[in-house]
Write a structure and sequence with these properties.
The complex is a heterodimer. Chain A has helices at 8-15, 21-67, 72-78, 104-109, 194-197, 234-248, 254-262; strands spanning 84-89, 94-95, 114-116, 128-130, 132-140, 143-154, 159-167, 173-180, 215-216, 226-227. By secondary structure, chain A is an alpha+beta fold. Chain A has 2 domains: 1-57, no CATH class; 68-262, no CATH class. In chain B, strands 1-2 form a two-stranded antiparallel sheet. Classes of the chains: A alpha+beta, B mainly alpha. Chain A: It comes from Roseisalinus antarcticus.
Chain lengths: 265, 221
């Protein structure tokens, strides 16, 4: 201990045998406090850069999703290369008044703009959902030919964020892009792989009577309402089913989809 | 202890003669998992070297005050914190690569190579030699990763760092990619081949049939 030239009490403390109960506790506390400061510091300092990265990636995935749908490239270049962005009021099923894409973040920071979801209907495991959501529209003339709906919900290991693309009839999936997830790599994590996502285009969400039929199958898809399940990822597969069903349902984008079908947008 | 020659020896010994991966068979899980391409192998190698060097320095600094009863958990806490910091830095500045590495950066925490060096060397030596030793071991690990990463990427995709080096048959060239190279078993085959080659060249590395582990070496995972 000779090299610790400090005040008497401190040196005396350090000179204690390492295995006294007090020193053991002290070392555990000191190391954890030091490490906590290190980790929190790095997280807080780097968060803005990470958020920008994630936003850029989400944008790139949405773009790739649109470009991956046959025929959409032409429509997109006709529309000037950009998608129409609309903030919708989920309850009313129409474009929100007073909230624009620029003010959406501020509006969502207000707890008053969130609604609790009754547990019985909370398929996606969200607990609450915002009253406003930003969706993307692509038009062919006056008709809406594609709508992109951001969806999210609880997966197996954490939240899954995705963007669901519906074709002009609002009952056919045009594509799905998973923008964020924390599923098990190699199992549930495969939901972000093209091989699985390419199964979505053409899948029907509702049958002729308007019943919601979409599901991720257990095993291979057996009807036009299903996509193949992922082997070894039953929980993740069923989470995707529940998330899509919730957001297409009455508490999700249901009213908005009805409005688009009526031609209100 | 402080003679420049001994530093040089501490630094270079783990490269080939006492390579942690091929001689001690430490840290092979990540060596197999992230070597499908050279870019991910390089990032993983750099991350592990940085974590190992810093962890060895920190643990060596407090080595006289680490109570024996909680020494492992103290070391793991320090290593895990450094790993989280590195992971955050990767996510901020090397976003694409951090996605490719996914969980394996986090698994540096449980990489037996890291705990092996801090437990056997850093806990008994002053900070500078500890960091030199850790850095040397990091380089030895990196060497193996880079070698396996190169072979797997070249023969699995005909590419190196994402650039085409062998003309693919489907694009009019002569090379048909060996998809096996991109799967985990090929990592085992290559690593096994490498260990065999090294032990043939340096017979002193071969273990005696009735192998009794020397006291100062930790067993593999």
């Amino acid at each position: 201990m000779a090299d610790h030239d400090r005040t008497g009490g401190w040196r005396g403390f350090l000179a204690q045998p390492n295995d006294t109960r007090f020193k053991t506790l002290f070392m555990a506390l000191a190391v954890s406090v030091g490490c906590a400061v290190l980790v929190s510091g790095a997280t807080v300092l780097l968060r803005p850069i990470q958020a920008a990265n994630r936003a850029a990636e989400e944008q790139a995935r949405i773009e790739a999703l649109v470009l991956g749908i046959p025929g959409m490239e032409d429509l997109l270049s006709e529309a000037g290369g950009t998608l129409g962005t609309v903030v919708v009021d989920l309850d009313a099923g129409r474009a929100a008044t007073g909230v624009t894409p620029d003010t959406l973040q501020t509006a969502l920071a207000d707890a008053g703009n969130w609604s609790a979801i009754p547990p019985a209907e909370d398929l996606a495991g969200l607990g609450q959902r915002p009253d406003y959501a930003q969706i993307y529209l692509l038009r062919d003339g006056e008709e809406v030919s594609l709508v992109l709906l951001p969806i999210s919900g609880a997966g197996y290991n954490g939240r899954i964020d995705a963007v669901l693309a519906l074709g002009g009839d609002m009952a056919t999936i045009a594509g799905l892009a998973v923008t964020a997830h924390s599923e098990t790599p190699g199992l549930g994590g495969r939901i972000e792989e093209q091989g699985w996502l390419s199964d979505f285009p053409g899948t029907r969400t509702h049958d002729a009577d308007g019943n919601l039929r979409f599901a991720v199958a257990r095993g291979a898809a057996s009807s036009v309402y299903e996509v193949d399940g992922i082997t070894g990822a039953t929980r993740t597969s069923s989470a995707v089913t529940r998330i899509v069903r919730f957001w297409l349902g009455p508490l999700g984008y249901g009213p908005v989809i009805d409005a688009i079908q009526r031609g209100d947008f | 202890m402080a003679a420049p020659g001994s530093f040089w020896r501490t630094l270079t010994a783990p490269l080939l003669r006492e390579n942690p991966v091929t001689l001690q068979i430490l840290g092979i899980c990540s060596a197999l998992a992230v070597t499908t391409s050279l870019a991910t192998a390089l990032t993983m190698a750099a991350s592990l070297t940085v974590v190992l060097t810093l962890a060895a320095g920190l643990i060596s600094l407090i080595r006289r005050h680490i109570p024996d009863t909680i020494r492992l958990i103290l070391q793991i806490v320090i290593i895990a914190s450094l790993v989280i910091v590195i992971d955050q830095i990767l996510q901020a500045y090397f976003f694409e690569i951090s996605r490719a590495l996914s969980v394996f950066v986090g698994l540096i925490t449980t990489n037996c190579l890291v705990l092996g060096r801090t437990e056997t060397f850093a806990r008994h030596n002053p900070p500078v030699p500890s960091m030199v030793d850790a850095f040397g071991n990091g380089l030895g690990y990196s060497l193996v990763l880079i070698f396996i990463g190169c072979v797997r990427e070249v023969f699995g995709k005909g590419e190196l760092m994402g650039r085409q080096v062998l003309p693919l048959a489907e694009q009019g060239g002569w090379f048909t990619p060996l998809s096996l190279m991109l799967l985990a078993p090929s990592g085992f085959f290559l690593l096994g081949g490498l260990v065999w080659a090294l032990r043939t060249l340096m017979p002193e590395q071969a273990e005696a049939p009735d192998f009794a582990p020397p006291e100062h070496r930790e067993a593999a995972e």
